[in-house]
Write a structure and sequence with these properties.
heterotetramer, A: 287 residues, mainly alpha, Cytochrome Bc1 Complex, Chain D, domain 2, three-stranded mixed β-sheet, two-stranded antiparallel sheet, 7 strands, 44% helix, B: 163 residues, mainly beta, Immunoglobulin-like, five-stranded mixed β-sheet, 3 helices, signal (chain C)
Chain lengths: 287, 163, 101, 103
């Protein structure tokens, strides 16, 4: 039995090493430079898709395929996330048992601030995402937290995203080594292959955006979170950023981590930061 | 629904009062069915929605066959973004339109939706339908008692890479 | 010479039990090895869904008394767990190859 | 509880364009839930739009209409401020109705 395992590992190892040597890039010195990373990241997509307008990247697959863009624009006349939006607005206005509302937890009453999330909390030394902040607000006011992958959370983030529509993503990295580490950790997660399919987020969203995986056209990684939360026809329901990360993992046959684990918060931090300057377009409708 | 004694004696004869004469035994001769009567009939076409095949559903709903016409403009995607939500619309330049219906051939039940178009309503409809798999989509317009159709193929597959 | 001898011995040993039908003891040993590897993979936060389902299949087969299938499934689970561990280890560096610079 | 029907009716000239989005599962009865049991069919069968005392649009729907169904049509003979009454019934006897003013 032992020999069979080694054979299997040997072949996998050989394939991986061969791939690593074949790739042209030289591994440069490892100083974390988010500004340079963001510039390189954006230029990669601007050069790879010269005729896609920069702000269009936030429309995911629809920036890659005219026929699907038409189907999408038709649906946008009366979008399927309309109900989640109304529910979110109502929830935002409904006070907790202690009389407070979400508006008391957020700057500017929670209106028009989604473009600053996630942010790095220097006291806690960790990335705080919008979904996490909402649940913390609930718990601070004696309410039970919502599931990160279910409709209530999606309705709240849909409404907050809607109030920020058109504002440019504006994520800050404070001069704090832990913030740089979180950014780097998110970047590593983004490029790390996982699951039996041996895909990383980049395998699909950097190497082959615009191409199809069966019926779906792959979205470019640039601005991929700007439309969150999204109503997906495939789920015939709303999906938060957490739900998207968890389902992407299981698609590659990797066991998902707990929603809002550090890795997910950091990769959201990385992806949002490199999309700075692109407009918020949430809530979105996707295939 | 126009009344005619087709081969199926069981088909319910819908008596529309003294004015209409049940033309027995004259088969499918097209005759001017008063548009108001088709619109007034609000009954839900149970029978037609039960038919599996497209041809049977058309017969159950309208009692006769349609002829393709370029006056019926059917707009549907070539590749459906998702089989669960396929935006489909139809417009027509025909006049005296009384009904518009959609048939998805490869669905378990072909008839998807049927709309009654009273006088004064523009003969055009947009809606979102489900499609089980790659299929022929047929839109039928009933205008001045006759049936006109347009059809198109829509490709449908699942999404995602694995799971 | 000595080295190839031990290899042959190892081969003979590993093939020996499958000559006769596997029994519960074989299953327990194979399952324990698979579970250890799976725990290690989970510890590295790089578990595969197919490892989990192979382990479950092994347990189900064993509960049904089909120890041959149970041992085979446990071995497959172990191999998958080990592959996911290898993936996590090698990716520690190879991810940089894909990074946009 | 907010109505399950969202309507947008806009008029330009003599033509009024009506869009409706209705919150309804539209279950076909052919889908199994996570426990492997069939989810019973539950879908809107008839949707009616009335304006100025007459039907302006009647939809007969089967199980192939998408979840949270959407429909768009236009009609003549109404003006800004007129009221449209929308009502639906489903195969389980459920129903809902609402009215909307033409903008």
């Amino acid at each position: 039995m032992k020999t069979r395992v080694h054979l299997l590992l040997g072949s996998l190892g050989a394939a991986l090493i061969a791939f690593a040597l074949a790739s042209p890039r030289v591994i440069a010195a490892d100083k974390v430079d988010p500004v340079a990373d963001a510039k390189a990241f954006q230029n990669f997509f601007f050069q790879k898709f010269p005729n896609v307008k920069h702000e269009d990247f936030v429309n995911g697959p629809y920036s890659m395929n005219e026929d699907m863009k038409r189907q999408w624009q038709e649906k946008e006349e009366f979008p399927p996330y309309e109900f989640a939006l109304d529910a979110g607005k109502e929830m935002f206005a409904t006070p907790f048992k202690n009389g407070k509302t979400y508006a008391d937890c957020f700057p500017n009453g929670g209106i028009g601030i989604r473009q600053n999330y996630p942010y790095f909390d220097t006291k806690e030394g960790k990335v705080i995402t919008l979904e996490l902040a909402l649940n913390r607000c609930r718990e601070a006011n004696g309410e039970a937290p919502y599931s990160y992958v279910k409709d209530e959370m999606a309705s709240l983030t849909a409404y907050m995203a809607y109030t920020s529509r058109g504002k440019l993503m504006d994520i800050k990295i404070p001069d704090d080594p832990r913030a740089l580490a979180a950014f780097e950790n998110g970047k590593r997660y983004f490029y790390t292959r996982r699951g039996q399919m041996n895909f990383s987020c980049a395998s699909c969203h950097v190497q082959s955006p615009g191409e199809r995986i069966r019926a779906e056209t792959l979205a470019p990684a640039l601005g991929i979170l700007n439309a969150m939360p999204i109503y997906r026809s495939e789920w015939s329901g709303m999906g938060t950023t957490s739900r998207r990360f968890v389902t992407c993992n299981s698609q590659t046959r990797a066991v998902p981590l707990e929603p809002q684990s550090d890795e997910y918060r950091d990769v959201e931090y990385f992806l949002s930061y490199v999309a700075n300057g692109l407009p918020i377009s949430g809530p979105g409708a996707r295939p | 629904m126009t009344t005619t004694t087709g081969p199926h004696p069981t088909r319910r004869l819908i008596l529309q009062g003294a004015a209409s004469v049940a033309l027995l035994g004259l088969g499918n001769l097209p005759f001017a069915a008063a548009p108001a009567r088709a619109a007034a009939n609000d009954k839900y076409p149970e029978e037609a929605f039960k038919q599996k095949r497209e041809a049977d559903a058309i017969k159950a709903l309208y009692g006769r066959t349609a002829e393709p016409s370029d006056k019926v403009k059917l707009d549907a995607p070539e590749i459906a973004e998702n089989g669960g939500v396929v935006p489909i619309s139809v417009t027509t330049t025909l006049d005296k339109v009384t009904s518009i219906s959609f048939f998805v051939a490869e669905n378990p039940f072909a008839l998807a939706a049927s709309y009654k178009i009273p006088d004064g309503t523009i003969p055009a409809v947009a809606n979102r339908l489900k499609m089980a798999r790659t299929t022929k989509l047929v839109a039928i317009v009933e205008a001045d008692g006759k049936l006109y159709s347009a059809s198109k193929e829509v490709k449908v597959t699942v999404g995602g890479c694995g799971g | 010479m000595k080295q190839s001898l031990s290899l042959a011995l190892l081969l003979a040993l590993s093939l020996a039990p499958s000559a006769r039908a596997a029994n519960e003891a074989d299953y327990k040993a194979a399952y324990a090895a698979a579970e250890a590897a799976s725990k290690e993979a989970a510890g590295m936060r790089n578990q595969w869904t197919v490892t989990v389902s192979a382990l479950a299949a092994a347990k189900k087969a064993a509960d049904g008394g089909d120890f041959d299938r149970a041992v085979a499934a446990a071995r497959e689970a172990e191999a998958l767990a080990k592959a996911s561990i290898f993936q996590a280890v090698s990716e520690k560096e190879t991810w940089k190859a894909m990074e946009i610079r | 509880m907010a109505s399950s029907i969202r309507v947008r009716a806009t008029s330009n000239g003599d033509i009024t364009e009506v869009q409706a989005l209705i919150q309804h599962p539209m279950d076909t009865g052919l889908v199994k839930d996570s426990k492997g049991e069939l989810i019973p069919a539950h879908f809107i069968q008839q949707l009616k739009f009335e304006c100025n005392g007459r039907d302006v649009f009647v939809a007969d729907w089967g199980t192939a209409v998408s979840k949270d169904p959407y429909v768009k049509f236009s009609f003549k003979g109404a003006k800004k401020g007129d009221e449209i009454k929308i009502s639906w019934t489903d195969n389980k006897g459920g129903s809902d109705t609402t009215t909307a003013k033409i903008a």
